[in-house]
Amino acid sequence: MVRNWRPKKCRRTTRLQTNCKFGLKVFRNNYFLIAKGIIKRRRIFPASLPFPTDDLPDMLRISTNAASIAITDTYDTQGSISRIEQGGEYACMHKPSGRKRKSLRRRKRNRTISFWGRRSCEHPVVSVIIPAMNEQKTIRDVIREAWQVHESTEVIVVANGCNDRTAEIALAMGAQVLQFDQPLGHDVGRTIGAKASKGEVLLFVDADMRIKSHYLRPFVNAVLKGTDVALNSYRGPVQRRQVHPVILAKHTLNTMLKRSDLLGASLTAVPHAMSRRAADIIGISNLSIPPLAQAIAIHSNLIVSAVHHVPVGRLNRRRGKSSGQDLLQQVVIDDHLQALNWYLSHTDPRGGHNDLGRKREWAGR
Amino acid sequence: MEREEAADPELFFYKSHLQQSFVKWMNTNISARPKYALLKRLSETYVQGYSKRGGSKKRGVPLLLNGSAAAVVCASSEEDSLHEMLSELERLPLQEIIVVLNGCKDNSYKITRSHPLVTVIYYPKLLGHDVGRSIGARLTRADAVLFCDGDMVISAEHLAPFLYAVDGGCDAALNDLNGFLPSFKHQDEVTHFKSFLNMVLGRSDLGANSLTAVPHALSGRLIREMDAQHLIVPPKAQALAVLKGYRVKAVYAVNVFSENRKREANTGKGNAVADMIIGDHAEALEEIMGRRGISGFKGSLSRKDVAMRRNAI
């Protein structure tokens, strides 16, 4: 995927906030040459081929393969590249020591990408899983809050079908990014992220909702204290007589599972957390269909509880609708039907509810 | 049959001069079939005039019915209200009243026998909820069948609209309880299930109305074609009726909440009756998913397509 170099746009939006003069980063088989805030993008050739150094501008000489890069020779008079992080797909430059920091105002103004100096831990306790599709507006804040959930955290961003800079920003924020060119579909990213995670607690958040970390911590703490699945106790607007179908479906499913005390709490809503044990019992692939996962969790006697209230309804972005109906509504209702179907096929056709001694045979055939 | 022929025509309201002359008068004077509100007023006025002329006060509610009508009443040990309930039903032009008595330990049988129009079906043991409805429905051949409970006295004026709606072409005329419901927050789980079932059936306009609630009326066509056995589980019958394209409509509002007899089993959260109704809805949902597949929507998009449409730039 080689895109044309658009100097104007690049200059405006893709500037690294570093004081170095030259740098290089590799991202999605492209390398970016950075010189005085200007980014130039070229394609990196597959690892099997020798890298055509002749093609490079004079100021940088690079020997690389697609997996790891190192800058061997810099044609830099001012010597501003102080450290290069190797490995992975990303090389990044830090502010050289001994240089004067920019004033606060100045720093604030060009904060398009600011490098968050955190990276995922080796042995994380908490894995924050963030499925994202074209969420460049919010992903930065979401990841920043995610890092603050626990001291030992890994942040996994499942960037699928992105046409914008979501993945780029996520990388710059130090998250582990799993990329997919095609959209995976709603909640499928949860499965992908959960598979890649290493933590004991899986915290699921959405990339389009900026939720402060102190709202996220109760979920993690609840799981650390022994809850298997910690749900958001958000019910949605329930003051009216006829509510949104999704709210109705959530309440109905919980009642069917004989957990009407959960009210409208659902795995469909973020944020929620679960232990790794719970994820394994539920089956990681089932996390793509949250109501099904909830049915399995409750049916397998996991400790499921609504631990904290985060009013996510207000944070939901307004999306495109088709004939006045949110498209996602159908998917969510179908999910709930699938969960009900699973539950009924694993119990009895009455879902384990009593019949109060109906003598059906008396009615004849 | 013998009994009917031998009796005085005034003994049965549907044969009475009042009902016959009202139908005749309606057919000659009113060309279009009126709405129930208008029919009710016409009927009231007609009865008033008829009483004045005849010198004795008439209590009947004459209705413009093209087909035959019947009522099915299920009761067990409800002698306090049964007599009154049957008296109200006798004010309607019904050809037949079927009372299914089950598990009665009181005088119900005697009371029921004192009403000439009534056919009694007596079971010494309890049949369980709604089984009586199915048995009663199977026995009648009427074009419109009204279903009531013996524990609740509802006046004939409030029962008539259900019969009238079925006679006018509706297949299932439900009691419109939506207006009596509190906000969702304060609704019980059973109401949630009723709304959910309608939503899954694509009939959100029905709100929380259900065949579980009485009174309601079904057309004879529906009962015969659908197999009366399904009426044991009312939500299932409702689901089948909607799926098969019968006309299901909420026609009239009768407040049954305040009149419903409070028992230990049907009060409080998570009571046994509520649990049973939830089980009924489970059966109905299973039936729907078995017939239509898990996806509740025609031509619904896959997760991927929805994501593409919603989140694409």
TrEMBL record, chain B:
CDD domains (UniProt xref): Glyco_tranf_GTA_type
Domain Glycosyltransferase 2-like: 72-173
Listed SUPFAM superfamilies: Nucleotide-diphospho-sugar transferases (SSF53448)
Gene3D superfamilies noted in UniProt: Spore Coat Polysaccharide Biosynthesis Protein SpsA, Chain A (3.90.550.10)
A Pfam family reported for this protein in Swiss-Prot or TrEMBL: Glycos_transf_2
InterPro entries according to UniProt: Glyco_trans_2-like, Nucleotide-diphossugar_trans
Protein name in UniProt: Glycosyltransferase family 2 protein
The species this protein was found in: Paenibacillus mangrovi
